[in-house]
Design a protein that fits this description.
Protein name: Carboxymuconolactone decarboxylase family protein
Helix content: 55-70%
Order of helices and strands: HHHHH
Strand content: under 5%
Number of domains: 2
GO molecular function: peroxiredoxin activity
Pfam families: CMD
Number of helices: 5
Number of strands: 0
Structural class: mainly alpha
């Protein structure tokens, strides 16, 4: 099997603004996940996306959890993000 590499290498050190996310991921997964390291290049955009996803996932959201997961999985497919596809598909299982 041919080994592929990322177009953009993940950052080794993250901006201070992402340290709460990095700490949570280290505690939960044992390491900072690569998508967070890639998003570290654009911390403002990272937080905007995180706030938007939080808005979609709030309890009073008009979308049902199943429809929300389908929508997020489809967006992940359009973006060709295998990690996001897996993460969002797990919610459907």
């Amino acid at each position: 099997m041919k080994e592929t590499s990322a177009w953009v290498a993940p950052m080794e050190t993250l901006p201070v603004s992402l340290s709460p996310i990095a700490a949570m991921q280290k505690k939960h997964f044992g390491a900072v996940l690569n998508p967070t390291r890639w998003w570290g290049r654009m911390p403002r955009l990272f937080w905007l996306v995180a706030l938007f996803v939080g808005y979609l996932e709030r309890r009073k959201a008009r979308l049902t959890p199943v429809l929300r997961s389908l929508l997020m999985t489809r967006v992940s497919q359009i973006c060709h993000c295998a990690f996001c596809i897996d993460a969002n598909s797990l919610r459907l299982a």
